[in-house]
Specification:
Blueprint lengths: L1 E2 L6 H7 L7 E2 L6 H10 L23 H10 L6 E4 L22 E4 L12 H22 L6 H12 L4 E5 L4 E3 H16 L7 E5 L4 H12 L3 E4 L6 H11 L3 E4 L1 H6 L3 H6 L4 E4 H6 L3 H11 L15 E6 L9 E5 H14 L7 E4 L6 H14 L2 E4 L8 H9 L3 E4 L1 H10 L10 E4 L6 H11 L3 E7 L4 E5 L18 E5 L8 E7 L6 E4 L2 E6 L2 E2 L2 E2 L2 E9 L5 E6 L3 E4 L2 E4 H11 L5 E6 L3 E6 L6 H11 L9 E4 L13 H4 L4
Helix pairs in contact: 2-3, 3-4, 4-13, 6-7, 6-12, 13-14, 16-17, 18-19
Length: 649
C-alpha cells in the first residue's frame, strides 16, 4: 500500500510498477480505507508502514491512526516486522551529521502475530483508540529489536556506527571527548585499576559529573569490576552505610573533587577503606600502557579485555534511604541497556541532539537518561557537576545549544525563574522525574520558553524509568504510559477504586538483587506478593482509561488504625490535596497514633476531611494530630527525610 504521490515518481515507474503488486491510496481521502479493508477481508496480505514516511531521526516517528483502525475493523492478523540498519544507507533521510554507507548491515526483527480488538467506543473515538493500540505495537517492536550486550560492547558498537572521531562529550573542565578518547581512557584506566583489584570486586566511585568518571564506569565494566556509584550528597552516615551494604573495600576519588566540593567529612566517613586517587592512577600510566593501547586494544577493544555476559553485574546504585538505610541496587548489563532501549523506543534521541545533564550520575535518572542514552545514541552530551546552580545551568543551555534537558520539578522551577527567555530557545524536550511536576512549573516553561515537559516515573530498581510521557502519548498530570516490555499488577488498598493500588512491576530492566547492611555484598533477589522477579515499588498509583499512570503517593508505610490498614503515604496524599504548595510527612507515634507534620500554617482537620471526601477516600485515613512546622528536612529527590523526622516527633 503506497500513496498516490509516490506512483508519480520516475524511479517508481521505472523499477517497481511492473514488479510489485501495490494499492495506491490518496491520504487526503478517508474513503480510501474502505478499499484497503475490503482487500484484507478478501484474504490478501497487505504491507503497511504505519509511520507513513521514512524516518528522519533513526527512531520511531509519528504513527497514523489509519493503519490501526484498518487492522481493528478488518480483524486482520498483524505480523510486526522491524527493518534495522536501512537508516544508515546512502538513501536515508537522516541529517547530514549521520554516517552513511552503501552496504549497511540490515537486520530484521519479527514479533509474534497479534491482533487489535475493535474498540467499544463512539465512532469518533475509534480511530484514536485503534491508533494508540497500533502505536503500542510499534513501540514494542522498537524495543524488541535491541541486542543482548554488555555496556562496553554497546559503547564500541556506538563508536563504530557514529565514527570514533565524533566528539560528543563535554564538561566544565573544557575538555571535549570523542568516542576514541572515551574508549582509550576507559580501557587504559580500567586495565591499570584491574592490576590492583580482584575480578568481580565492587569498587566505590566518589567522583563528580565530568567525562573521566563516566569513561571509568565503562572501563571497570570492561575488566569485570563492578563500579558502585556512591551517593556523596546523602550525608556521611548514608555514605558509610552504602559502602557497608555493597561490601566495598576500595574507593576511587579525586583530590581536586574533594577539595572543590568540601567533602573532607565524606572522606573521613570512608575511614578504613583504601582510597585510590584518580590523579595518581593517571600519573601511573606508563609508556607500556600507551603502547598496549596503540598496538592491541585500539583496533579491537573487546578482544583486549575479559569476556563478559549481559546477565553479569554491571554496577551498583543506591536507594535514597528516606525510610531506612540506603540499600544497594545491583543492576546487570541487560537491565541497564533494556531501559535505554525502552526509553529510546518512545523518545527520538539522535546525533542531532545536545543533552545537558546536571543531575548527579549516582542517581539512576542522571546516569541512564542523562548519560548512557546520549553516549549510546551518538547525541552530544554536556555534563555539569551540580543542578543547584540555578543561574549557571540556563547559561550552559544557551552556550551549548541544548535540545534536551533533564531535571526534577524543583530544579526546573528555579531554572525557569532565573533563565532568560532565550536561554532555552533550542530545547525541544524536557525530561522530568524524581518528583511530581506541578501545574505552575509546567505552565511557566510552556509560556516562557515554549517547551513541553515530559514527566516520567521510575525507580532505581528499574535502572531509571518505568513510565514516560512522550511526543506521541502525553497527558498533563500523569507520568505517561508504561514503557514497552514492562508488566504491572496492582495490589488493592483499602479505600481505593479498582483501577488504583500499590504498583508491582516486572521486566527485563529490573534489578538483579538488593544489597543490605545486614548481609554485606550478598544480593537478595527481588520478590513481592506476586512472586519472584516482581518489584514492589511502594507507590500508590492509578491508571486512566487510556493507560496513563498517575502517582498518588507512597504506601510502603502501613499500620493498623481503627481496625483497618492505613497507609501513611495516603495521609500525605490527602494533605497534599488540601495544601498542594506545602510539604507534608505522616508519622506513627506511641501509642499507635498518627501525626501529620506540615508546613501549611492554615491546614486543619476540617480541610483534611474536605479533601478526603472530594477524593472519595475513607475518613479513618486521617491523622489524630497535626503539627505545623516552618520546614521539613528533605532528601535530594524531594522526599521527606523520615529518619531525621522520627526522633523529633
Amino acid at each position: 500500500m503506497i500513496y498516490t504521490t509516490a506512483t508519480c515518481h520516475r524511479l517508481f515507474r521505472l523499477f517497481s510498477r511492473r514488479l510489485v503488486d501495490y494499492l495506491a491510496i490518496d491520504p487526503n481521502n478517508p474513503m480510501e480505507m474502505k478499499g484497503v479493508i475490503r482487500l484484507i477481508e478478501s484474504g490478501r496480505p497487505v504491507l503497511i508502514f504505519p509511520e507513513g514516511r521514512v524516518t528522519t531521526t533513526g527512531n520511531l516517528m509519528k504513527t497514523y491512526d489509519g493503519p490501526g483502525f484498518i487492522a481493528a475493523k478488518s480483524g486482520a492478523t498483524i505480523l510486526p516486522v522491524r527493518i534495522d540498519g536501512a537508516a544508515r544507507s546512502r538513501f536515508s533521510l537522516l541529517g547530514s551529521q549521520a554516517p552513511r554507507t552503501w552496504l549497511p548491515r540490515i537486520r530484521l526483527f519479527v514479533l509474534p502475530p497479534t491482533r487489535i480488538t475493535p474498540p467499544s467506543a463512539p465512532h469518533g473515538e475509534q480511530h484514536y483508540l485503534a491508533g494508540q493500540a497500533m502505536r503500542r505495537v510499534m513501540t514494542d517492536l522498537m524495543f524488541a529489536g535491541r541486542r543482548e550486550q554488555t555496556l562496553p560492547e554497546a559503547l564500541v558498537e556506538a563508536a563504530r556506527r557514529r565514527g570514533r572521531g565524533w566528539r560528543l562529550l563535554g564538561d566544565v573542565e573544557h575538555t571535549d571527548y570523542s568516542y576514541n578518547d572515551i574508549l582509550r581512557s576507559a580501557w587504559v584506566l580500567g586495565r591499570k585499576i584491574a592490576q590492583r583489584t580482584a575480578p568481580d570486586e565492587t569498587i566505590g566511585l566518589l567522583l563528580p559529573n565530568v567525562g573521566a568518571p563516566l569513561a571509568l564506569l565503562f572501563g571497570l565494566s570492561a575488566w569485570r569490576r563492578i563500579p558502585a556509584l556512591l551517593p556523596y550528597t546523602a550525608g556521611n552516615t548514608s555514605l558509610r552505610a552504602a559502602c557497608t551494604a555493597a561490601g566495598i573495600r576500595r574507593v576511587i576519588s579525586s583530590r581536586e573533587f574533594i577539595a572543590r566540593f568540601k567533602l573532607e567529612g565524606s572522606l573521613r566517613a570512608l575511614d578504613g577503606l583504601e582510597v585510590l586517587w584518580l590523579e595518581d592512577l593517571r600519573d601511573a600510566i606508563s609508556l607500556g600502557d600507551r603502547v598496549w593501547w596503540l598496538l592491541r586494544a585500539r583496533f579491537s577493544p573487546l578482544c583486549a579485555c575479559p569476556r563478559s555476559h549481559a546477565d553479569d553485574p554491571a554496577l551498583v546504585m543506591f536507594t535514597a534511604g528516606s525510610e531506612e538505610n540506603p540499600k544497594g541496587v545491583l543492576l546487570s548489563h541487560r537491565a541497564l541497556l533494556a531501559n535505554v532501549a525502552q526509553i529510546r523506543a518512545v523518545l527520538d534521541i539522535s546525533s542531532n541532539d545536545v543533552v545537558l545533564n546536571a543531575l548527579p550520575l549516582h542517581h539512576s535518572f542522571g546516569l541512564t537518561a542523562g548519560a548512557l542514552i546520549p553516549l549510546l545514541s551518538g547525541a552530544k552530551l554536556f555534563l555539569y557537576p551540580s543542578p543547584q546552580h540555578h543561574r549557571v545551568v540556563p547559561e550552559l543551555a544557551y552556550n551549548s545549544s541544548a535540545t534536551i534537558l533533564c531535571g526534577n520539578n524543583s530544579f526546573l522551577a528555579n531554572y525557569g525563574r532565573h533563565a532568560h527567555p532565550y536561554d532555552f530557545s533550542r530545547l525541544r524536550c524536557v525530561i522530568a522525574g524524581g518528583e511530581k511536576v506541578t501545574p505552575e512549573v509546567r505552565e511557566l516553561w510552556f509560556e516562557k520558553f515554549g517547551a513541553r515537559i515530559f514527566e516520567g516515573y521510575g525507580a532505581t530498581e528499574a535502572a531509571c524509568a518505568i513510565a514516560l510521557n512522550n511526543p506521541m502519548a502525553s497527558r498533563w498530570g500523569s507520568a505517561g504510559p508504561l514503557l514497552p516490555g514492562i508488566q504491572h499488577r496492582l495490589q488493592p488498598l483499602l479505600g481505593l477504586p479498582a483501577n488504583a493500588g500499590v504498583l508491582h512491576v516486572a521486566g527485563p530492566n529490573m534489578l538483579s538483587g538488593y544489597l543490605r547492611t545486614t548481609h554485606p555484598g550478598v544480593p537478595a533477589a527481588p520478590q513481592s506478593c506476586f512472586g519472584p522477579g516482581w518489584l514492589d515499588t511502594g507507590d500508590v498509583v492509578s491508571f486512566d482509561d487510556d493507560g496513563f499512570l498517575h502517582v498518588l503517593g507512597r504506601a510502603k508505610r502501613l499500620l493498623t488504625h481503627a481496625e483497618a490498614s492505613v497507609s501513611l503515604g495516603l495521609i500525605e496524599l490527602i494533605a497534599t490535596a488540601a495544601a498542594p504548595d506545602a510539604d507534608h510527612a505522616a508519622l506513627e507515634t506511641p501509642p499507635g497514633e498518627i501525626l501529620l507534620l506540615t508546613t501549611a500554617p492554615a491546614l486543619d482537620t476540617e480541610a483534611l476531611h474536605t479533601a478526603a471526601a472530594r477524593l472519595g477516600w475513607p475518613e479513618h485515613a486521617l491523622p489524630a494530630r497535626i503539627e505545623h512546622r516552618a520546614s521539613l528536612p528533605m532528601l535530594a529527590p524531594g522526599k521527606p527525610d523520615y529518619a531525621a523526622l522520627t526522633p523529633s516527633a
